[in-house]
């Protein structure tokens, strides 16, 4: 009986050890299969040609706005291109050009409203006083108003206060137009500013102010893009 009891106890202990080993192996197999099933996306970053990379640095409050292009590296230094307003309009998406054209015609349809262009902005004036100034960046048209943002708090217009910058002191609020609703808001804000100042010219004939796409090389040739490396 003692021998039988010893054998039975030994057998139970061995079975317990074997069971533990089986469980550990089972867990190991499951973990290994999960690791093998993970598909890692290949890293193509190092395979991208330098000529395919273009990094645009847009410092809107910096007068020396530039575009840096990896494809034009010379002796380890990047060439800096300064795009003027007209150049940005030439290379803007078609939808941006359409919105710009609609907005410009809307402004000029008011009596005694005219434009003044600088390298960076297009300004719309009424009797030498600014109404708005425009700046284009891709799909966005930044419209700076001669309105105080605080006057439109808790309204649908959501103007951004940019009065902290001296360059915006005569147009201290901003609305970024990148869709039809914001374009309509811009027109309404123009109407509010010009109310009791002037009126719509019913004989105004809209013009096409859209510009065709031009390559950077052509824009440099025309003096619309400055090569700051020279």
Précis, in short:
Helices cover 34% and strands 20% of the residues.
What order do the helices and strands come in, and which of them pair?
Elements (H helix, E strand, L loop, with lengths): L1 H36 L16 E4 L8 E4 L10 E4 L1 H6 L3 H15 L4 E5 L4 E5 L2 E9 L2 E6 L14 E2 L11 E5 L2 H15 L21 H6 L3 E3 L3
Antiparallel strand pairs: 1-2, 2-3, 3-10, 4-5, 5-6, 6-7, 7-9, 8-9
Keywords: Membrane, Transmembrane, Transmembrane helix
Primary descriptors:
230 residues; alpha+beta; 3 domains; 5 helices; 34% helix; disordered N terminus; membrane; transmembrane helix; transmembrane
Please trace the helix and strand order, writing H or E for each element.
HEEEHHEEEEEEHHE
Helix content: 25-40%
Whole-number count of domains:
3
The portion of residues forming beta strands comes to: 15-25%
Describe the 3D structure:
This protein has 230 residues and is α+β, with helices and mostly antiparallel strands. The chain has helices at 2-37, 85-90, 94-108, 180-194, 216-221, and strands at 54-57, 66-69, 80-83, 113-117, 122-126, 129-137, 140-145, 160-161, 173-177, 225-227. The chain folds into three domains: 1-39; 48-82, no CATH class; 85-223, Aspartate Aminotransferase, domain 1 (Alpha-Beta Complex). The protein has five helices and ten strands. The chain has a six-stranded antiparallel beta sheet with strand order 4-5-6-7-9-8. It has a four-stranded antiparallel beta sheet with strand order 1-2-3-10. Helix 3 (94-108) runs parallel beside helix 4. The protein is elongated and about 110 Å long. Mean pLDDT is 81; it is low at 1-6, 37-65 and 68-74. Keywords: Membrane, Transmembrane, Transmembrane helix.
